[in-house]
Write a structure and sequence with these properties.
29 helices, Vps16_C_sf, Vps16_C, transport, Vps16_N, 4-stranded antiparallel sheet, about 800 residues, Vacuolar protein sorting-associated protein 16 homolog
Length: about 800
């Protein structure tokens, strides 16, 4: 330790490996032999069984800073399992970010048409395990790319974009337009913005077309570059202020294409002798831009081209194979990784750089907080070492986290030095900071042993702090356990802690579901105690939707298996699972699954979609929901011819009754047809009586009542027939009275008609109505006496009282 403390600026090893100082470039490297440990967390293993340990050479390099006070580290994620025979340069490669899958297209340059020579599309996990493969039988591919939801985009020369899932199952396709079809595709890029996943195309006419969201396809044709006669030497898609633009280089000129114009731009601080642009790279967050010229000059600045960050003069002038950014979120330091056939260079603010000699062809995958490096045999990660890790593991570091780690190690050795280290931290009142530093550094470590060492130190330090909140420690332990489980090479998702927090656990669960790793996803939900609706229920629903696609079992077996697994789990919708079964052509299975759906409102729409209308009507009636019954009945009305529709309702009295109620208010003529079909003369008579009141002309009203009279006779309802007949007679008399006296009598009752006649002094006409309609004597006497009293015609009242004996007594006469 004494010798180590005397060497400032070096980093110490955390796992007892040999440090060597490289004489050529002053690169400090670590080369050791360890055993590859298969981390399977018991119940968290998702159904995968541990493999026996395998020896491998793990190479970890920690380098002097390319920026002041910043170091970079490169370590191996996996020894690749794919056993490729081809070099990566002979394949078309596309790797999804956030530790996503890798797509390879082999034999794409061959022109033979024989089936054996067809290109082969393969999809691997990040650890090189084959997920799916298929021979490519469609058009010539120009570019592969991944969407944010890990669907594979295959961009063809004719502008058609085919979309496949992780298992090479075709999902859908779309076209980039007729202009692209006519001029063909020269180059294509897949990019990601806040709008979604986009595709940009360079056509044979040297024009750019793009869409910012393939799920809401809106094609944009970018402005033309004046005088452009050949493809640009390099180009990139930028996203600024929610606007997507294209930056391209032609020789020493840069052009910026927005929605309406093409403008020439010059990066600030660019050397006049920089030369022609050969390569450009946009950072993961689209905020930074790097340019490489044919003189080996590298310019780094903001993507807005308004500020220069730094520059670097490289001795290599040949065009790089790839150039990507390597930077951490919220870090003020920037670095760019450039590769050639057998060389990798990391450059930043410093005048020096880190260089690697590559043993084999490699492919760079930019990430949120670093760069993944793929080759035939290994998968590595290059990143800027976080500040917390630098402070703890730097040789001779006096940071509180470093002292706490040493104190815990000495405590395990039962050494009194543990108390000395601990007192030193407590005297400076930095113990809470030391604990937080160890917790934070544990998240950035990839090796579980180092994670445990740091967490033990944090746990040790917590014991000496009053009321230290345990949430951060517990949360970090949970996060690391989840991360270690998904980093297992059989799972193959090498997320870093920073990526995991940006991605969120919900998206991680979605990705596990897409990989059909249902047991692991469920156990993570249970371990993190997520709500059933957000966690287990949703995953089980996805599992069931996948289960219905398996056609090697009968409908009865699949339905029973799904019900046994799901039961009455909250948040499960059997109707959604049944809908997936129906989409897969398994109608009978869908019907069986709907039997487990407790909500009729979810059953009925799918049954109607499957054209099981009668069953849908039965389910709607069983639910007791009249709105649902009405919805089914109206659907049947539009779907079936009139006769079949009426016959269907005959077998469902409840539905027929509700439909009649509907027709009474909405479709009167249909109601008449229903009564005619049933020979329901009584209701037909009522219908005609009701219809008579909507007639404005007296002839129409009398005609409607005459129809009602006929129907009542057929129904043998003598009372209704007699009442209707009297109404017809009254209407005719009222019409004559109205014509004779020029006063309104229509629509009055018999009582009011007689009363008005008496009030107007037409006593003979009143007597005529009294006789024709056989008004009872008592009613007529009361009616006439009341009318004469209201009129004040006492003489007529006296005359009337003496006409014959009063049927209502003489008290009235005295009154």
């Amino acid at each position: 330790m004494g010798l180590a403390r005397g060497i400032p600026g070096l980093l110490r090893g955390s796992q007892g490996c040999l440090w060597t100082l490289g004489p050529a470039r002053g690169v400090l490297g670590l080369l050791g032999v360890s055993w590859y440990s298969h981390w399977s967390w018991g119940w968290l293993g998702g159904g995968h069984h541990p493999q026996p340990p395998r020896p491998c050479i793990c190479h970890l390099s920690i380098h002097p800073p390319v920026c002041p006070s910043v170091a970079h580290s490169k370590f191996e994620l996996y020894t690749m399992e794919w056993s490729l025979k081809e070099d990566l340069r002979d394949c078309m490669v596309a790797a999804a970010p956030y530790g996503g899958p890798i797509a390879l297209l082999k034999n794409n340059t061959r022109k033979e048409k024989s089936p054996s020579a067809r290109p082969l599309l393969e999809i691997y996990s990040a650890s090189g395990l084959l997920l799916a493969s298929m021979p490519w039988k469609s058009g010539q591919l120009v570019q592969l790319g991944w969407t944010a939801s890990e669907d594979l985009l295959c961009i063809q020369e004719d502008g058609t974009v085919l979309i496949y899932n992780l298992f090479c199952e075709f999902m859908r396709h779309f076209s980039m337009g007729n202009e692209v079809l006519q001029n063909r595709v020269l180059e294509a890029k897949v990019f990601h913005t806040e709008y979604g996943t986009g595709v940009a195309i360079l056509t044979g006419a040297h024009r750019f077309s793009l869409t910012t969201n393939i799920d809401d396809l809106k094609l944009r044709r970018m402005p033309e570059v004046p005088g452009l006669q050949k493809p640009p030497s390099c180009w990139a898609v930028l996203s600024q202020d929610r606007v997507t633009i294209v930056l391209l280089a032609v020789g020493q000129d840069l052009y910026l294409l927005d929605n309406t114009s093409c403008s020439v731009v010059t990066p600030p601080g660019m050397s006049p002798s920089a030369g022609a642009y050969l390569q450009m790279a946009v950072s993961f967050n689209y905020r930074c831009l790097a340019l490489f010229t044919d003189t080996g000059y590298i310019w780094m600045g903001l993507a807005t081209l308004k500020e220069k960050l730094c520059e670097f003069h490289s001795s290599v002038r040949s065009p790089p194979k790839q150039m990507v950014w390597c930077m951490r979120p919220r870090s003020r330091q920037r670095a760019v990784v450039v590769t050639w056939d057998r060389q990798l260079m990391v450059v930043g603010n410093s005048t020096e750089c880190i260089q690697f000699v590559l043993d084999e062809d490699s492919y760079l995958v930019p990430e949120l907080d670093g760069v993944r490096i793929l080759s035939r045999t290994s998968h590595e990660f290059l990143h800027e070492i976080p500040e917390a890790s630098q402070e703890i593991f730097k040789i001779a570091s006096m940071a509180p986290g470093a002292l706490l780690l040493e104190a815990q190690k000495e405590y395990e050795k039962e050494s009194q030095k543990a108390d000395e280290y601990l007192r030193e931290i407590k005297d400076q009142k930095l113990l809470p900071e030391a604990v937080s530093q160890c917790i934070e550094a544990a998240g950035y470590e990839h090796e579980p042993d180092t994670q445990k060492s740091l967490l033990r130190a944090a746990s040790f330090g917590k014991c000496f702090i009053d009321k230290f909140p345990p949430e951060s420690f517990v949360r970090m332990c949970q996060d690391l356990r989840v991360l270690n489980a998904i980093r297992d090479y059989q799972i193959g998702i090498p997320l870093t802690f920073t990526q995991y927090k940006r991605l969120t656990v919900e998206v991680l669960l979605d990705r596990l579901v897409l990989r059909r790793l249902y047991p692991l996803a469920i156990r993570i939900c249970e371990y993190l105690r997520l709500s059933e609706i957000q966690g287990v229920s949703r995953i089980l629903a996805h599992w069931a939707c996948y289960k219905v696609q398996q056609k090697d079992k009968s409908d009865e077996e699949v339905a029973h298996a799904i019900n046994q697994k799901l039961g009455d789990t909250p948040g499960i919708s059997y109707s959604e699972i049944a809908a997936r079964a129906y989409d897969c052509g398994r109608t009978e299975l869908a019907i069986k699954l709907l039997e487990y759906e407790p909500r009729s409102g979810e059953q009925v729409p799918l049954l109607l979609k499957m054209k099981r209308s009668k069953l849908a009507l039965s389910k709607a009636i069983e639910s007791g929901d009249t709105d649902l019954v009405y919805a089914v009945v109206l659907h049947l009305k539009n779907e079936l011819n009139r006769g079949t529709f009426f016959m269907t309702l005959q077998n469902q009295p409840v539905a027929l009754s509700l439909y009649r109620q509907f027709c009474k208010h909405q479709e009167r003529e249909t109601l008449k047809d229903l009564y005619n079909q049933d020979d329901n003369h009584q209701e037909l008579g009522n219908f005609h009586v009701h219809s008579s009141y909507s007639e404005k002309r007296i002839e129409g009203r009398v005609g409607a009542l005459q129809n009602a009279l006929d129907e009542y006779y057929k129904a043998k309802n003598e009372f209704a027939a007699k009442a209707t007949e009297d109404q017809i007679k009254l209407l005719r008399l009222q019409r004559h009275l109205q014509e004779d006296f020029d006063k309104p009598y229509l629509d009055l009752s018999l009582h009011d008609t007689v009363s008005n006649l008496i009030l107007d002094g037409h006593h003979k006409r009143a007597e005529q109505l009294y006789r024709e309609f056989k008004i009872p004597d008592k009613r007529y006497w009361w009616l006439k006496i009341s009318a004469l009293a209201n009129r004040g015609d006492w003489e007529e009242m006296e005359k009337f009282s003496k006409s014959k004996k009063s049927p209502i007594g003489y008290l009235v006469r005295a009154f």
